[in-house]
Amino acid sequence: MQNDKFQRNTHQKAVILDYIKTRGGAHIRAEDILEGLEAAGQHVGKATVYRFLKALENEGQIRRYTISDKVPACYQYIGNTPECQQHCHLMCSRCGRLIHVESPTIRAFAAETLRQEGFAIDEGKTVFYGICKDCGEKNNE
């Protein structure tokens, strides 16, 4: 019976990873995974999703982003693309939208900070907060 549980867990982990991979590097929440799998006829428990997300994060296959206490953590498939970790994020304080930004100016700032201060900025964990274009336009209407 222990072997059946191992096979089921391996299958569920593969289903979760496949779901994340099909999102093409988008940031998704655990709830998105649960809803998407349920819609596809794959029932996976909430605790199982969180357990496997942690395992996939530890394996380096996904990256976890914790933006604030108000917004649930989101996950991104990085697989064999470490360059995906080489960008920072913009977070809209109104709608919670998370945007990748790859900027030569930010890279230069990170390099200069390392040179002057001896401090290495982790771009993959760097988040700038503000108001996105859509929310800004709604505010001006």
Distance between the termini: 62 Å
Helical amount: 40-55%
How many strands in all? 6
List unreliable stretches of 5+ residues: none
User: Given the C-alpha coordinates, what overall shape results?
Assistant: globular
The number of helical segments is 5
What is the residue-averaged pLDDT? 82
Strand order of the largest sheet: 1-3-2
Which H/E pattern describes the elements? HEHHEEEEHEH
Give the percentage of residues in beta strands: 15-25%
The main sheet comes to: 3 strands, antiparallel
Rg from alpha-carbon coordinates: 18 Å
Search tags:
141 residues; three-stranded antiparallel beta sheet; 16% strand; single chain; three-stranded mixed beta sheet; 6 strands; alpha+beta; 5 helices
Structure, briefly:
The protein is an alpha+beta fold and 141 residues long.
Spell out the blueprint of helices and strands.
Blueprint: H1 2-21, E1 28-29, H2 30-39, H3 46-58, E2 62-65, E3 74-77, E4 88-92, E5 98-101, H4 104-117, E6 127-130, H5 133-140
Parallel strand pairs: 4-6
Antiparallel strand pairs: 1-3, 2-3, 4-5
Helix pairs in contact: 1-3, 2-3
What does this structure look like?
With 141 residues, the protein is an alpha+beta fold. The protein has helices at 2-21, 30-39, 46-58, 104-117, 133-140, and strands at residues 28-29, 62-65, 74-77, 88-92, 98-101, 127-130. The strands form 2 sheets. It has a 3-stranded antiparallel beta sheet. A 3-stranded mixed beta sheet has the order 5-4-6, with no helix packed on it. The longest helix is centred in the first third of the chain and has 20 residues, at 2-21. The N and C termini lie far apart (62 Å).
